[in-house]
């Protein structure tokens, strides 16, 4: 959906619900991680870009001290009195994302005025494209406008991350909120998860686009996979005598092979290799070497599949179908993106070949899995901004 249409829809829906026009309006993007998976909690690098899919937050003042928030994507409104203490809602309530951000403003003694808020988004919810960070950052940007106090961008991202930890109960890293705040059009963001320093890497070539393929599956695992991976990484770092796997080179890891449990060794090999690949992919992109960037994406996928063991059949089907199309057919590379076990794959595709690639991937995936995937194409979108206020 076009941005202008999304803005207009949000204004229309706002007027329908509240009988007046919004005074403030802000937006924040969803994101896709191009490469650098499961590196964040190892103090490594990630390389996300914003999607041209956005979450809008619109608001008008109220005469009382109530923060009232509705979403076009949810049934239940959320409401709190700003002059009283409030707590997180039950786990799983969408209202925790906006409330967590309001709480962050109050902790900083920024006076949030009473308001009616409406959220509306073109980011798919729960699909691994970080609709949650888009929502937090859209609300934070809206509150900046309403309070008349702009926050430092990094502080804003950290405030939103804290909302996700403390209110939504999700102990996420910094990537999603950072890219939603800091993204620039036609750039991907190389982010150092240890120092929190970052670099905007130009991705200006209009001849290259990013294709997102949603497998439409989310395999329900025991829930222990993520903590188990984290523990394995920590134990590898401890055995090597370093604070995090970020501090290990591939050569050092190979030398230490005998000292590590075989599974732990493979987990560490993914992380150490992926950190290298992420830096190499950023360099390939700086040089416009799309074939190289694409090869690194395939290597990332193989490592996540074989060493980290977080892929699944559906993701593998997409990546193999992309590989079969090849550079001649317009695909530079493809990999799973996000935590794994379902969700989305991301492909670098020659823009002129997008319709043909899309049709072939869709048909092949459906033939092999019986599932209809959801695909969309995007260029790097922009970071959060105030539309009105
Ligand atoms: P992801 O961030 O990958 O989309 P999450 O599970 O982290 O998946 O976040 C999805 C949740 O965020 C939704 O279930 C909902 O609670 C909340 N959410 C995201 N976008 C919106 C929206 N536009 N309106 C209401 N709630 C939203
Ligand atoms: Mg999320």
The gist of it:
With 389 residues, the chain is of the alpha+beta class.
Descriptive overview:
With 389 residues, this protein is α+β, with helices and mostly antiparallel strands. Helix content is 41%, strand content 24%. Helix 8 (262-286) packs antiparallel against helix 9 (290-306) and helix 10 packs across helix 11. Bound molecules: adenosine-5'-diphosphate and magnesium ion.
Through-space gap between termini: 24 Å
The CATH architecture of the largest domain can be named as 2-Layer Sandwich
Instruction: Compute the number of structural domains.
Output: 2
Helix content: 40-55%
The 3D shape can be described as: globular
Biggest pleated-sheet summary: 8 strands, mixed
Query: Based on helices, strands and strand pairing, what is the structural class?
Result: alpha+beta
Hetero groups bound? adenosine-5'-diphosphate, magnesium ion
Annotation, overall tally of beta strands: 12
The proportion of strand residues reads: 15-25%
The SSE order reads HEEEEHEHHHEEEHHHHHEEHEE
Number of distinct helices: 11
List keywords for this structure.
single chain; alpha+beta; Ribosomal Protein S5, domain 2; Alpha-Beta Plaits; 2 domains; 4-stranded antiparallel β-sheet; 41% helix; binds adenosine-5'-diphosphate; binds magnesium ion
Secondary structure layout:
Elements: H1 3-18, E1 24-35, E2 45-61, E3 66-71, E4 78-81, H2 96-107, E5 115-121, H3 131-147, H4 153-166, H5 175-182, E6 187-192, E7 198-202, E8 208-218, H6 225-240, H7 250-255, H8 262-286, H9 290-306, H10 313-325, E9 331-337, E10 342-350, H11 354-369, E11 374-378, E12 385-388
Parallel strand pairs: 3-5
Antiparallel strand pairs: 1-2, 1-12, 2-5, 2-6, 3-4, 6-7, 8-10, 8-11, 9-10
Magnesium ion binds next to helix 3.
């Amino acid at each position: 959906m076009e941005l202008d249409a999304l803005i207009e829809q949000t204004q229309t829906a706002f007027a329908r619900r509240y009988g007046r026009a919004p005074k403030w309006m802000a937006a924040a993007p969803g994101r896709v991680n191009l490469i650098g998976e499961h590196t964040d909690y190892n103090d490594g690098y990630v390389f996300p870009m914003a999607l041209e899919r956005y979450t809008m937050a619109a608001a008008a003042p109220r005469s009382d001290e109530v923060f009232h928030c509705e979403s076009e994507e949810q049934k239940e409104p959320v409401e709190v009195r700003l002059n009283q203490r409030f707590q997180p809602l039950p786990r799983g309530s969408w209202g925790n994302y906006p409330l967590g951000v309001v709480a962050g403003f109050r902790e900083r003694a920024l006076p949030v005025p009473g308001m009616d808020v409406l959220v509306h988004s073109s980011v798919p919810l729960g699909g691994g494209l970080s609709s949650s960070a888009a929502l937090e950052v859209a609300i934070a940007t809206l509150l900046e406008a309403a309070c008349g106090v702009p926050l430092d961008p990094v502080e804003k991202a950290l405030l939103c991350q804290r909302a996700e930890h403390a209110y939504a109960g999700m102990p996420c890293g910094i990537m999603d909120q950072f890219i939603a705040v800091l993204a620039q059009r036609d750039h991907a963001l190389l982010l150092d998860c240890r120092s929190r320093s970052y670099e905007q890497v130009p991705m200006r070539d209009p001849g290259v686009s990013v294709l997102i393929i949603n497998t439409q599956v989310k395999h329900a695992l025991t829930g222990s996979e993520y903590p188990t991976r984290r523990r394995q990484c920590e134990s590898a770092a401890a055995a090597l005598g370093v604070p995090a796997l970020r501090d290990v080179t591939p050569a050092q890891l190979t030398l230490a092979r005998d000292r590590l449990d075989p599974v732990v060794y493979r987990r560490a090999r993914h992380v150490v290799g992926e950190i290298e690949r992420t830096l190499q992919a950023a360099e390939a992109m700086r040089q416009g070497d799309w074939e190289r960037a694409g090869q690194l994406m395939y290597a990332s996928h193989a490592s996540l599949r074989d060493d980290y063991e977080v892929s699944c059949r559906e993701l593998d089907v997409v990546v193999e179908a992309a590989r079969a199309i090849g550079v001649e057919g317009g695909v530079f590379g493809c990999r799973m993106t996000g935590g794994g076990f379902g969700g989305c794959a991301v492909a670098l595709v020659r823009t002129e070949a997008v319709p043909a690639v899309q049709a072939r991937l869709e048909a092949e995936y459906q033939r092999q899995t019986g599932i209809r995937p959801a695909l969309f194409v995007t260029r790097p979108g922009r970071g959060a901004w105030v539309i009105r206020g």
